Amino acid sequence: MSFLDHLEELRWLLVKSSAAIIIGAIIAFNFTKFIFDTVIFGPKSGDFITYRFFCKIAQKYDFDQSFCMTELPFELQNRTMEGQFAMLIWTSVTVGFIIAFPYILYQIWSFIAPALYDKEKANAKVFIFVSSLLFFIGVAFGYFILTPLSINFLANTSISDMVKNSIDINSYIALVKTTSLATGLVFELPVVIYFLSRFGIVSPEILRDYRRYSIVIILIIAAIVTPPDIISQIIVSIPLLILYEISIYISKFVYKKQEENE
């Protein structure tokens, strides 16, 4: 295929993916009450499942009990006339993206398949299943773990008793959406490493050499988003460290297969 033919294929990938997201957004639009009241505003409630879980751990091991509360010290407010409508639309689009993610992966696979071996092309179902599973696990981890930890930490951070927290709804929802989506994409690290290794961009040696720096970065991120207790930091750090180690083995597997093929 020529360069222009590749661009045409890429254009159709974007068109089909956008259409799938719009369809997903329309579906989400019909469940807005559940999406906002139960899902998005769930971490604002002191009775949220994550807070209750961490509260039990803190009480059992006598750690910081900042999660044991009945209500978070802030209220949400809308500051613009079109604010709630715009938030409704963009939140529906975000949910539509999550719903359409497996189909988007299929389109991406169709685009890169010509550069793969025949045996690799036959693994399309495995690729879509594994990638989708990692993404949904990442979104769940971001929503149930990172988002409540971040909201609890930021809501209870105060420079003075004279300052009251009246949070703009755009700021709150942006935190929930960004954290959940970003974590879902981060959990795609093994899949990304597979293709980077497949095309010779990274190698197991490079990943091993930078392991110590990666561990430090992961621990710093965990320390920032969690309360000052070691249990919360470990809970956040472990999945990311496991993903990095899995990526090293995946890269090693890819290089070994390439040597056998050669």
UniProtKB/TrEMBL annotation:
Q: Give the UniProt subcellular location, in the record's own words.
A: Cell membrane; Membrane
Keyword Protein transport assigned: yes
* TM region(s), chain numbering: 12-36, 85-106, 126-151, 171-197
* Organism encoding this protein: Flavobacterium agricola
HAMAP family given for it?
TatC
Q: Which Pfam families match?
A: TatC
What InterPro entries is this protein classified in? TatC
Q: What's in the keyword line of the UniProt record?
A: Cell membrane, Membrane, Protein transport, Translocation, Transmembrane, Transmembrane helix, Transport
Q: What is this protein called?
A: Sec-independent protein translocase protein TatC
Homology family: Belongs to the TatC family.
- In terms of superkingdom, the source organism counts as Bacteria
Entry function? Part of the twin-arginine translocation (Tat) system that transports large folded proteins containing a characteristic twin-arginine motif in their signal peptide across membranes.
